Structure formats: C-alpha cells, structure tokens
Amino acid sequence: MEYLHTMVRISDIDASLDFYCGALGMEEISRYENEKGRFTLIFLAAPGDSDRARTSKSPMIELTYNWDPEAYDGGRNFGHMAFRVDDIYATCERLQAAGVTINRPPRDGHMAFVRSPDNISIELLQRGDALPAREPWASMENTGTW
User: What is the fold of 5-66?
Assistant: First the structure.
C-alpha cells in the first residue's frame, strides 16, 4: 500500500491557493480541469516534497473545486492535515502576517493549529524538540476551534 494524497473540497480556488500556497508555502504541482464532470483538481506539495511529488513519490493534497456551487459544512469532521515545520514561531508569525488566524497558538513551542478558508484544520508541528516557550505565543489564548 502507498499513501497518495488527501482530497479536500474547496469553494474558492483563489482563496484556497492564497492560503495553501501563499500563506503555508505549498507548491502547485499540477492542475486538471474536467469540463464534462465540471470540476478542477489541483495537486499541491510541501516545498521539501515538490521534486518527489512531480514523480509521484510523495504524498500531496488534492484540492477539488466543483464548478457548480455546493455547501461544504462540517469541515471539522474531516480531522486535520499535519505539516512539520523548521520553526513553529516563524511559521505562525508568517501566517499571522498573511491574515491567517492562529486558532491554537504554539504555547508549548511544539504545536499550533490554523484553518483553511474551507474550515479544514491544519496542524503545524515543530521539527525536532519543542522550542523554548516565548511571548506572545506562551500566553496567547485559543481563537475559535481547530
């Protein structure tokens, strides 16, 4: 068995790419539009996985955009996606500067949660040992749910 991708339905391509690529830093690997089925598939990979993803040797995220509007509620019941990052604080600062709400701040120097425009929970985990606690993160309250 080989893990290939996680599919997430999206309601706005531009907002989703702004979040996943612009804020999180993922890279678009490929895009497929199906006029008969009226949908667009966009495959993304984390920057460190993009070369392997182009040869189908790394898991990806598949964003699925259905051309006919649908309501996608209950995003929380999806669970979450997780990404390992080199510096949890720098990552959260970059996301916050891009307008992303940090739902669960990295108070412990190890873990944070944010949400995509379609309410998909994204877990961010510090690579290696947790970083020493520091402000403003150490005393920051949760915002919403994750």
Answer: 2,3-Dihydroxybiphenyl 1,2-Dioxygenase; domain 1 (3.10.180)
What CATH number belongs to 75-139?
Answer: 3.10.180.10
The pTM score is: 0.77
Q: Which two tokens stand for residue 68?
A: 């006919």
Which positions are annotated as active-site residues?
123
Q: Which residue's entry shows tokens 């497929």?
A: 32
**Per-residue pLDDT tens over the stretch 118-130:** 888 888 999 999 9
Higher pLDDT, 55 or 135: 135
Which residue pairs from 15-19 have beta carbons closer than 8 angstroms and sit at least 24 positions apart in sequence? 15/117, 16/63, 16/65, 16/116, 16/117, 16/118, 17/42, 17/63, 18/117, 19/100, 19/116, 19/117
CA distance 74 to 96: 24
Return the domain boundaries, the chain.
Answer: 5-66, 75-139
Amino acid 76: pLDDT:
46
Residues of the chain with pLDDT > 70: what percent? 92
Asked if 126 and 88 touch (Cβ cutoff 8 Å), the reply is yes
**Closest of 71, 78, 58 to residue 8, by C-alpha:** 78
